[in-house]
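Practice problem. Given the sequence and the SMILES for zinc ion, write out the predicted structure.
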Amino acid sequence: MYRKKLLDLLLQQPMSIRDIAELMEMPMRDVASDIEHLSKSLKRTEFILMIEPAQCQKCKFTFRKNKIRKPGKCPRCHATWIREPVLHVTHR
Ligand SMILES: [Zn+2]
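Answer key:
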């Protein structure tokens, strides 16, 4: 039930883990693990989870796509000004 809601949300609009956690009133780590499960369960469906990876706002270093939570700091320039990864579900 809850995963269906998560799917509906992400079909409507791109959201970060933080956005979802605030909306659902859940801890970010729980949302992150639910997103991982959702991503796997979508593999056999018409939908696909798209991840716009986190990016350092200072040097534009782009983090790996599989990192869905916001990293603490940039490994290249050590800045903490990081844009959160944004998740979105779309049709294949
Ligand atoms: Zn950087």
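Check your answer against the key. Residues 28-41 form the longest helix (14 residues).
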